[in-house]
Amino acid sequence: MTTKNTQIATVGGGCFWCTEAIFQEIKGVERVVSGYSGGNVPGKPTYREVCSGLTGHAEVVQITFDANVINFEDILIIFMTTHDPTTLNKQGADHGTQYRSVIYFHNEKQKVITETVLKELAQHYKNPIVTEISEAKTFYEAEKEHQDFYKNNPNYGYCNFVIDPKIAKLRQLHTNKLKST
After folding, report:
1. Quick check: is 18 catalytic?
2. How far apart are CA 175 and CA 140, in angstroms?
3. Angle between helices 164-173 and 16-23 (to 10 degrees)
4. pTM
């Protein structure tokens, strides 16, 4: 019997509803929590404050995964191929620093893997990758209504028009990484 190798990844790829929905489908992912990180204001931020763009926080997800099932490199490859890492502070119709593409590393090994993966993937994009790579800061869990948003609101317009195509892309590109349903 193999013991679990639980690790944490923190990434932001625009609206956290999208990123959360992607990683909830991945084998080895035990938990995905939407939240905020990377800001420069004291105290726990609210959704409204983060959406103002004045806190410096990004909408992110914190992914708890078993590295014996899926490794950090694969987490990053899935992340980088299910959002546009070449647009600065923008994903689709969402604009502002809170929607930036960002990877927060939790240790030196994650930093090195992140730099390597981004360098390797750069050749597959027409425009330069602008994903921020920063040391993980305090993670603030988002309000309850933002957790499991896609699961709880599958008929919401944003889910249909923005998240559904990302899920379809995930299923096309990373079939072997999906949980069995």
Report:
1. no
2. 31
3. 40
4. 0.95
Q: How far is CA 87 from CA 37, 112, 132, 173, 176, in A?
A: 19, 23, 11, 21, 28
Which domains does the chain show, CATH number per domain? 6-176 (3.30.1060.10)
Asked whether the predicted pLDDT for residue 181 surpasses 70, the reply is no
Q: Which of 15, 18, 51, 159 is flagged as catalytic?
A: 15
% of the chain at pLDDT higher than 70: 98
Q: Name the nearest CA neighbour of 129 among 103, 92, 110.
A: 103
Long-range contacts, 113-121 (Cβ 8 Å, 24+)? 113/72, 113/73, 113/76, 114/76, 116/73, 117/73, 117/76, 117/77, 117/80, 118/76, 118/80, 118/85, 121/77, 121/80, 121/81, 121/85
**Which value, to the nearest 10 degrees, does the dihedral of the CA atoms of residues 55, 79, 74, 132 take?**
-40
